[in-house]
Amino acid sequence: MVRENEIRDAESAVALPSGYDAEIYFIGRIRTPWDSRLLTPRQGRADGPVCHIEIFEPWVAALEDVAQFARLEVLYWLHLSRRDLVRQSPANDGAARGTFSLRSPVRPNPIGTQIVELVSIEGNMLSVRGMDCLDGTPLIDIKPDRTLFSPIAPPQPGDFQTS
Ligand code: SAM
């Protein structure tokens, strides 16, 4: 079962810290066909429906050169998630697992990541396949899929360090 915001048997919540350690900018908004967590895919699929990622100003210029990558890594803020669970019961069967052993949207910093297939870019709008978030989910970042990307900056000593 997908949760809304309830705590299930065997789950543990903690008191959240009183302040934050960082600030982020929402750089855009993800448009998908899903308006309920109960309908949204648990993980996106490469043959899923085309979804749209709208980039806000002043970040649109940062889309330059993105079109050369067939796949992108998208990071987004799962804004409706609770953030205080350290043990969760994904199957709601009385058994719990540590939050960091799961890809649940419920986590201290509810960041979702997904590799998507790039369909097109027109102006400030990307069309992609593979998303798994609610319509209107805030966008944090876009990067080339690391398997397609070679660093352009010169190598550094750490690049050659082993063991
Ligand atoms: N692919 C990402 C990952 O692995 O980091 C996210 C996976 S998470 C399991 C996907 C689920 O999060 C969806 O099935 C939906 O139930 C929930 N979800 C999607 N968008 C959300 C949002 N904006 N706020 C809270 N929950 C959301």
From TrEMBL:
GO terms for biological process: methylation. The keyword Methyltransferase applies. Pfam families: TrmO_N (PF01980). This is tRNA-Thr(GGU) m(6)t(6)A37 methyltransferase TsaA. One of its GO terms (molecular function) is methyltransferase activity. Transmembrane segments: none annotated. Belongs to the tRNA methyltransferase O family. It comes from the Bacteria. The keyword Aminoacyl-tRNA synthetase does not apply. SUPFAM superfamilies: YaeB-like. Residues 24-154 form the TsaA-like domain. Keywords: Methyltransferase, S-adenosyl-L-methionine, Transferase.
